[in-house]
Specification:
mainly alpha; about 80% helix; about 0% strand; flat
Length: about 110
């Protein structure tokens, strides 16, 4: 169980830099992007679900990365970017079925 706990925590910790990258991709400046990442990094709910052996926490960075790549694919119209959005969405759906709802947003 300690290994799973640390794995969940490590995956959940990726949500902050993923949120920063999404904010930058959406066109926010550096300060606003850092603030968005800091808000996610200091979220008590995310910290709790990341430390517990649950699928909620590790799903968050995968969903954020799916949205990041979908936004980039819409901007660049490259198939490779759309494929990355699908990969991250698939990983999120593999952890938590509720992430399938994100397919509607990503599409």
């Amino acid at each position: 169980e300690p290994v799973l706990r640390w794995l969940c925590l490590a995956l959940t910790a990726l949500a902050a830099p993923a949120t920063w990258a999404l904010a930058r991709e959406l066109g926010f400046d550096r300060r606003a992007s850092l603030f968005a990442g800091a808000l996610v990094a200091t979220s008590p709910a995310l910290a709790h679900s990341g430390f517990a052996v649950l699928t909620d926490g590790p799903t968050v960075p995968f969903v954020v990365l799916a949205v990041f790549w979908a936004v980039r694919a819409a901007r660049t119209t490259r198939a490779r970017d759309a494929a990355w959005a699908g990969v991250w969405l698939g990983l999120a759906a593999g952890l938590r079925e509720a992430a399938i709802v994100m397919a509607i947003v990503v599409a």
